[in-house]
Amino acid sequence: MRDPANNDERIEALRQALHARGLVLTPQRRAIFRAVLDIGEHPTADRVHAALRRRRIRVSRATVFRTLEALAGMGAITKACHPGSSVRYDGRTDRHHHLVCTRCDRIVDFSDAKLDALPVPDTAGFGFRVNELRVQLRGICEQCREQEEKA
Amino acid sequence: MRDPANNDERIEALRQALHARGLVLTPQRRAIFRAVLDIGEHPTADRVHAALRRRRIRVSRATVFRTLEALAGMGAITKACHPGSSVRYDGRTDRHHHLVCTRCDRIVDFSDAKLDALPVPDTAGFGFRVNELRVQLRGICEQCREQEEKA
DNA sequence: TTAAGTGCAAAAGCTTTGCGGGTAG
DNA sequence: CTACCCGCAAAGCTTTTGCACTTAA
């Protein structure tokens, strides 16, 4: 997600998606969206807010929460599944998979052609309309392992 | 998780796991553990606390939070990955998979032999020690779809 | 005696909501 | 004018922490 040309495309797509709903791409929305794409690491709302402040972009916390929720609602970004206690947003909307550290809740993207080719299993009877299949590899990340060794 | 004989086995296993760490299976810990197993639906700490109160079992909120965290830490239960904003616990520790509703954060277990047989992809270079592979099917649950149709 | 365990209440962290003022069509 | 939009502050959740008291080895 550090391809600036692609980011421009996605911002343009966002503008259109907003417009289709009678909404506007404000400077705040643009900045919040860009921040999620730039940070990459499945940030929390608070992390996005902090990143914006560091860049001297003034946006209120409430607007960050509202906007991230709205962007996720219209599919411009997604919510990442995680074992922790605050919502994590994901700039990627394409099919991909996650390594999840069960110690520190870190989430790292990875891709795997075989996994991408997996057919969605039959889950009729559960009443779900399934939109996508994602694989999670749960484990312990390098940093947590190092910390563990000290103790 | 509604097999009472199995629950008894698991409580006995928990007693031993605690004992191995110099800890004790107190009435509170037993009740909290049983509640997670009985509820089944990947409850939050607060949901466990409410369930216990409904059964007239008095346990403080702090103890519920502390205990669930400890049980997860020693592997007696797990944390479920979810897109929401509060920790979800899972009584199951065996390999299984989840349907996740991206609208209401409902989590439903499902099993699939083919998925269980999936080899863990090569993720050398990420520094993770991977312990398990889980598949998530993200979508919209029946209740949310019905609600959607009304609107 | 000592360490573990719990409840309570306060603190801390995360998220939503209500409202007032601003702004663009 | 009328929505939309944002910031602010308050309210509402969720989770952790400090402390006092109890209990069991």
Low-confidence stretches of chain A: none
Q: Helical residue percent of chain A?
A: 40-55%
As a percent range, the share of strand residues of chain A is 15-25%
Alpha-carbon distance between the termini of chain A?
A: 36 Å
Largest interface: A-B, 42 and 42 residues
Biggest beta sheet summary of chain A = 3 strands, mixed
Oligomer: homodimer
Provide the succession of SSEs of chain A: HHHHEEEEHEH
Strand order, sheet with most strands of chain A: 4-3-5
Overall pLDDT metric of chain A: 95
Helix/strand/pairing category of chain A: alpha+beta
Tally of separate helices of chain A = 6
Shape verdict of chain A: globular
Evaluate the radius of gyration of chain A: 17 Å
Strand elements of chain A, count? 5
